[in-house]
Design a protein that fits this description.
Elements: H1 2-20, H2 25-30, E1 36-39, E2 41-42, E3 57-58, H3 60-72, E4 76-77, H4 80-89, E5 97-103, H5 107-120, E6 124-128, H6 142-150, E7 154-157, H7 172-188, E8 194-196, H8 207-212, E9 217-219, E10 237-238, H9 245-255
Parallel strand pairs: 1-5, 1-10, 2-3, 4-5, 5-6, 6-7, 8-9
Helix pairs in contact: 3-5, 3-9
The chain binds zinc ion.
Amino acid sequence: MLKTLITLASICFFALGLSAQPANGAAILARKQVPVICYHQIRNWRPSDKLADKDYIIPPATFKTHMKMLADSGWHTILPDELVDYLTKGRQLPAKAIVLTFDDTDGDQFEVARPELIKYGFKGVFFITTTNIAKNKHYMDKLQIKQLFDEGNVIACHTQDHTNFKKYKDQDWEIQIDKPTKKLEKITGQPVKYFAFPFGEWNSAGLPELHKLGFKAAFQLSEPRDPGDPIMTIRRILGCGYWSAQTLDYNLKHDFGRLH
Ligand SMILES: [Zn+2]
């Protein structure tokens, strides 16, 4: 009898202990993925644009059809805090939750994407490469970044100058991630908690550095997630310039509809 009680007590303790822990990698990987779309430049194609570049350049008219399709299909944008709470603690999300992300500080994200987001009540995540801030007329300046933040969007780190994460050593962590993050925090006045890998490229060896620097999550592109650290390798798909709204709709269902 005593033995049974002890066993029961230890099972309860074990269960309580488990629920108090953040989710481990396997638990995160087992959850259905929330679609995350990644946009870059939003402008009309030029004759000089190479074929491969057009994955990263979406004409404004096409971008607008993407946003309209998402709104008409009942998608709701969520922000990384909600996504992380869902992945680590099982927080309830709206049915059709999606994350919209924008990389590289392009000015047309402010000029073209922002009004579309506002039109549909969407919020986005802007991954800023700090060397691009006000670099020329094609990039956002500090005031625009602050305005996006004040309007409820998330400002996040996309390195100092887009150097590949796999190459970082010694001072690079400070130059490419820590200093740019502090620069963004100065602009917004709030902690910057999220990171996106340049080119979507990452290696497992570097992931502990992101934890050390205080990031809550990091975003890659479409590779499999790191089984030991899926929160630092959240998948995104490119919102390709070639994709009609129907293609995007199909890919949201068929890419993020399955587990990776
Ligand atoms: Zn980038």
